[in-house]
Amino acid sequence: MSFPAFPTRKLTDAEIQQYRDDGVIMIKGAIDRNWLDLIEAGLEQGRGDMSLLGRFMSRKVGGYQMDIFLWKRIDQIRDAIYYGPFARWAQQLMGAKEVRFFYDQMFVKEPGTDAPTPWHQDLSFWPIRGEQICSFWIPLDPVTKENSGLLYVRGSHKWPQRFKAISPDYVAAIIDEKMDDIPDINAAPEKYDLVDWNMEPGDILMFHPLTLHGSYGNASRTRRRRALALRWTGDDVTYQPSAKRMPVHFRHESAVGGPLRGAAFPRILPDCDPAERALRARPEKPMPAKMVGSLLDNARAAIRLKLSGVDSRALKQTWGKPTQG
Ligand SMILES: O=C(O)CCC(=O)C(=O)O
């Protein structure tokens, strides 16, 4: 068997066209049980042993557990990324030759948590730019709108606006006050082409980094909602950090304005870079100096936003209980 594994099937031309038109597609029954079990085992390990960053991200929002870069410390997640079928799908979807892994993110909402994921575009706060970027969202539990299935604004990846990045914990450091305010979509849903799916474990969402998306809290009393997002980049992507974009706390050699390079963003296709992979032989921790730098940036950003009249509380959105249908 060769790795990364080949998916159960290729994406059809119609699915790729739909991704280009709508900015999101849902593929039913895409993931074999063995890969799903591997991811679930890794995610459960991550839930029980959160990183410092994850604890920081999850501190303000009761019942909403988030963490990133799990693959740096959890073998099952790393193996799913290096050996699973995901990189080949990303390659086909993006039409790319080279595929690099950008990062993973865990999103878990406990039953009864009312914490939404505010509407946002991912690319507005990512430290990369390019056309060939996509995310896969992999639920480990059955999801509906009631227990926090994702919602998308169809076609919004083609809108000209770049919206202020509103994260679930309202992190000031990634809010760029020069960007547009996100409209209060749920206050006037009839104005938007909203789309969502009921999903089962094994289904996968593939979406463009500019497609507006978000989710309600988990109104179910019994059903936890666990998901892992995997982010991929292709040939044209460059490293474009800024004080108002998500910091990367792991080692890499990408020059500003240049292609992604190094072990934080490992190359998976057309083949692995042995030097990058060797660096992941042992679990890796984020660099403490970079973490402290991020905390200071965040404090400075909160002051800057207040002084410039952007109060992060004013950016809160209408998210009541989901309406069915
Ligand atoms: O799971 C969620 O509620 C949020 C997912 C998300 O925003 C993402 O994967 O980019």
From TrEMBL:
Keywords: Dioxygenase, Oxidoreductase
Keyword Oxidoreductase tagged: yes
InterPro entries: Phytyl_CoA_dOase-like
Domain of life (superkingdom): Bacteria
GO molecular function: 2-oxoglutarate-dependent dioxygenase activity; iron ion binding
Name used for this protein in its record: Phytanoyl-CoA dioxygenase family protein
Gene source species: Oleomonas cavernae
